[in-house]
Amino acid sequence: QVQLVESGGGLVQAGGSLRLSCSVSGSILRINAMGWYRQAPGKQRELVGAITSGGSTNYADSVKGRFTISRDSAKNTGNLQMNSLKPEDTGVYYCNAVVTTTGLRVRESWGQGTQVTVSS
Fold first, then answer.
1. If you write DSSP's letter for every residue of the chain in order, what string do you get?
2. Residue of 66, 70, 65, 83 whose CA lies nearest to 36
3. Are 6 and 116 in contact (CB under 8 A)?
4. Residue 90 to residues 1, 40, 46, 52, 85: CA-CA distances in angstroms?
5. pLDDT of 56-110, one tens digit each?
6. CA-CA distance, 107 to 56, in Å (whole number)?
7. Would you state the pLDDT for residue 33?
8. Cβ partners under 8 Å of residue 99, min gap 6
9. Pairing of strands 10-13, 114-119
10. Closest CA to 69 of 89, 46, 53
11. What is the pLDDT of residue 88?
């Protein structure tokens, strides 16, 4: 099994910053990719950004230049640094990981989500 646990959400004023972390545990051989998604009330879940095992990143246009994804392969953790936050960034943020297990199976797992609220 693969488990993802997010942390770091909270309430922040517009223009502020938050850092989310995602810890991946279980029978992991390698994390192939990690992604961050968010879901605002009444809206569909959307991709915020992702990072590959090689370190390549991609971001939604709405967060480019403000958000940065990083990962620590040795610790099986990923981070989402969010700067210059806007009220429209409010939502539940989910960590997603595609991993190769020690049994050489590829698994996709999700975290439980963490609330981010940006006040105007």
1. -EEEEEE--EEEETT--EEEEEEEEESEEEEEEEEEEEE-TTS--EEEEEEETT--EEE-TTTTTTEEEEEETTTTEEEEEE-S--GGG-EEEEEEEEEEETTS-EEEEE---EEEEEE-
2. 70
3. no
4. 30, 6, 12, 25, 9
5. 999 999 999 999 999 998 899 999 999 999 999 999 999 999 999 999 999 999 9
6. 20
7. 96
8. 2, 24, 26, 28, 29, 30, 31, 32, 106, 107, 108, 109
9. parallel
10. 53
11. 96
Please give the structure tokens belonging to residue 2: 């693969």
Of 79, 77, 75, 53, nearest to 67 by C-alpha is 79
- Across the chain, what does the average pLDDT equal? 96
Residues in the chain: 120
Q: What are phi and psi of 109, to 5 degrees?
A: -135, 155
Pairing of the two strands 57-59 and 46-52 = antiparallel
Can you give the pLDDT at residue 1?
A: 86
